[in-house]
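=== RUN LOG ===
request id: a7f3
mode: sequence -> structure
chains: 1
length: 130
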Amino acid sequence: MGARKRNTAEALKESKKSQYFAKLNNCPTSPRKMRLVADLVRGMEVYKALGVLEFSNKEAASKVVKLLKSAIHNYETKTGEAPESGELFVSKIAVDSARMLKRIQPAPQGRAHRIRKRSNHVTLFLEKVN
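=== RESULT ===
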């Protein structure tokens, strides 16, 4: 590894030490459905966001609850202290498209329709308010 690449990698590692995040890869839900849930909690305080997600009827909400709890635990691990109410917020939540399973469904007269089973990646960042 070259010196420039090593320095860049070390700088990236240092910047990630002060960020609190969790990532969910290859979640078998359509990105469009997951974005609806992500828009509910973007910018909210974490405990209020947990309350909103717990009572949401959407199936994707349960996966975001698990991800948010993981991000809170990552915060606790990195700082060594439990977050107090009102100091930790969901700063960014990004939903990206992931792999797509392509399936065939039989159709009339010897034809076939392609079914695309979509999945997504969700990245959730927390930020501490000073």
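=== NOTES ===
The CA atoms of residues 51 and 112 lie 44 Å apart.
The chain has one domain: 22-128.
=== END ===
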